[in-house]
Specification:
heterodimer; A: alpha/beta; Nucleotidyltransferase, domain 5; 5-stranded mixed β-sheet; 7 helices; 10 strands; globular; B: alpha/beta
């Protein structure tokens, strides 16, 4: 099974190819250049370097959101275009899940935060549980010799203070990661009452290798979409819609 | 059949998601347009973020429908053409990203097209015998350009607006007199019942060339008129205001265009863009051109609005002229005509 994966939900652009659970290529650029200029040339590069026949790809996995609205749409339109041309399905992997999955095997809780502006973060809380404990969840693989990736709090947009309250309630050590960490470091230092650590940069970025791996689990469970029906998960209305709702008292 | 050049074209620069298949630059095999107008009417104008979101929802459907209606598959297509500017950047990026992805996955050549070049090229579809050189006025909600079309893909802008586009002025005035959005068709319609000579609004002259436009002063004049009527407790006749405003816009558009016709010696003149659907504008140009013995061209309304068929026509001429874009093609919101 071959999964082509891409992420352009934040500053990094990342693409990957997973073949039968082996990561054949991953290419990540964390630099301020628009995804419109980087994403497809990067895909082209890994295609050429791995001598990939595009027709042999089974599905295209992408981070479906949340993230930068424009970034999400570049990724989405790219995946949809490839899916249309190849008649292949898409796998919409939640962005925050994919970031957290990079922290495989830690015994702490994992909490990625992405800066969502207006003092909010896109975040979620995750945990790796020993497979022998037979936990349940969407990413459970049933492989007995490993950890299962469990979602403790599904991804959402929340105020940073509210997130800290939630983490304090969990009352467990937590690894914080994601591009929101440098932005909210002072608030986290002030508000977190549980032991916490900040992950290094290479585990803090959106990376398409994680997207591909979670995508493969979802693919095996039939969690795919047609390229036509896929749309990003923004987790937020547009400003105009929000203001209109507020005005109408909704 | 094998010598035919089929362009799959994609357009998403504003609030229409559109895809088309065009044969040899002139023959439209399909032209699918998803208009978001109802969505934006709630907000009194196009909201960029909402437009971008809707483009993503619809982009694959319109492309698939365009291929289906044309009775072709991607295997029959010669090249992909896409609007990459000017326009709303978030909206443009959807079409550009999808077009590049299809080019990547199929290996087909990619041709980026200027939106205005598309509008001008709508005339090639509507008039199979039209060939450059000719003069062209492009008028829409976002653009007011007087252009010398020297050859296929070769343009010189001879006049442009200093402030509002003509279509924008229509929208703003329509809102002020309570007609709502979109203003163009509503002003056009109600003007049939109004007297275009009832109120004299100014015809702005700007710049040295005599080819440039300015519509913000006219818009202010209409607003001032409405205010002063209100102060004096005078009844406002909406149809008269609409007709008089529209006449002022048309006088300037026709006046500058005919000055260009005379000085550049155009034997042919064309109009294009959303405002070129305006029935009074069409009639005024028809008359002005025929008076001067100039052959007049105009696209049907469906090709005046933003649509991908016109991008396919322009894309065809770019393609045969050798224009190719790479997978790093970006959306350029303020792309200039003639810039490559």
């Amino acid at each position: 099974m071959k999964i082509l994966a891409l992420d352009s939900s934040g500053i990094p652009a990342s693409v990957a190819l997973l073949e039968d659970n082996v990561l054949k290529a991953e290419y990540t650029i964390n630099h301020k250049k628009t995804h419109s200029q980087t994403l497809l040339p990067m895909l082209d590069e890994i295609k050429n370097m791995t001598e990939l026949e595009l027709d042999s790809v089974d599905a295209i996995a992408l981070t479906a959101g949340p993230g930068s609205f424009t970034g999400l749409r570049i990724g989405s339109a790219t995946a949809k275009g490839i899916g249309l041309a190849l008649s292949k399905p898409l796998i919409a992997v939640p962005t925050v899940d994919a970031i957290a999955y990079g922290m495989y095997g830690t015994e702490s809780l994992i909490c990625p935060i992405m800066d969502a502006r207006r003092n909010q973060v896109y975040t979620g809380v995750y945990e790796f549980v020993n497979a022998q404990d037979k936990p349940e969840g969407i990413y459970v693989t049933g492989d007995e010799h490993g950890y299962e990736f469990i979602v403790r709090m599904p991804q959402c947009a929340v105020d940073i203070a509210e997130l800290c309250d939630r983490l304090n309630e969990f009352n467990r050590p937590v690894v914080m990661c994601g591009d929101g960490v440098p932005v909210f470091k002072d608030r986290l230092n002030e508000l977190l009452k549980v032991p916490y650590t900040f992950a290094p940069s290479h585990l803090s970025l959106q990376k398409a290798g994680s997207v591909a791996t979670l995508g493969a689990i979802m693919y095996r469970k039939g969690m795919t979409q047609t390229a036509a029906e896929h749309s990003p998960e923004y987790l937020r209305l547009s400003q105009a819609e929000r203001e209109r709702k507020e005005k109408n008292g909704l | 059949m094998s010598s035919d050049c089929l362009i799959l074209a994609i357009e998403s620069s504003c609030d229409e998601t559109s895809a088309a298949v065009v044969r040899n630059g002139r023959e439209v095999l399909s032209n699918v347009i998803f208009s978001q107008i109802d969505l934006h009417t709630l907000y009194g104008g196009v909201v960029p973020e909402i437009a971008s979101r809707k483009h993503i929802d619809k982009v694959n459907q319109v492309i698939e429908e365009a291929l289906d209606k044309a009775g072709v598959t991607l295997k029959d297509i010669t090249a992909i053409a896409v609007t990459y500017g000017p326009g709303l950047v978030g909206a443009l990026l959807v079409g550009v990203s999808a077009a590049k992805a299809i080019a990547f996955a199929t290996g087909l050549p990619l041709v980026g097209v200027h939106h205005i070049e598309g509008h001008i090229s709508a005339n090639f579809i509507a008039n199979p015998t039209l060939e450059p050189p000719f003069g062209c006025l492009v008028v829409s909600g976002g653009h007011t350009h007087l252009v010398e079309v020297k050859d296929y893909g070769k343009y010189e802008i001879i006049g442009r607006t200093y402030d509002d586009a003509a279509g924008e002025a229509f929208d703003k005035v329509a809102r002020a007199i309570g007609l709502g959005y979109p203003g163009g068709p509503k002003v056009d319609k109600i003007s049939n019942e109004g007297n275009p000579e009832a109120i004299h609004f100014p015809r702005a002259k700007v710049g040295d060339s005599g080819y440039d436009f300015s519509f913000s002063g006219l818009k202010s004049a209409v607003l001032n008129y409405l205010n002063s009527c209100e102060m004096k407790n005078e009844q406002i006749v909406v149809a008269d205001v609409a007709a008089s405003f529209q006449k002022a816009v048309i006088d300037v558009l026709v006046g500058n265009s005919m000055q260009a016709v005379e000085q550049y010696g155009f034997k042919k003149f064309a109009i294009a863009g959303g405002v070129a659907s305006n029935s009074h504008l069409r009639a005024a140009f028809e008359e002005a051109c025929s008076k001067r013995g100039v052959e007049f061209f105009l696209p049907p309304p469906i090709l005046c609005t933003d649509n991908a068929a016109m991008i396919g026509a322009a894309g065809y001429y770019e393609y045969i002229n050798g224009t190719r874009h790479g997978l790093d093609l970006n959306a350029i919101p303020n792309l200039r005509l003639g810039e490559k």
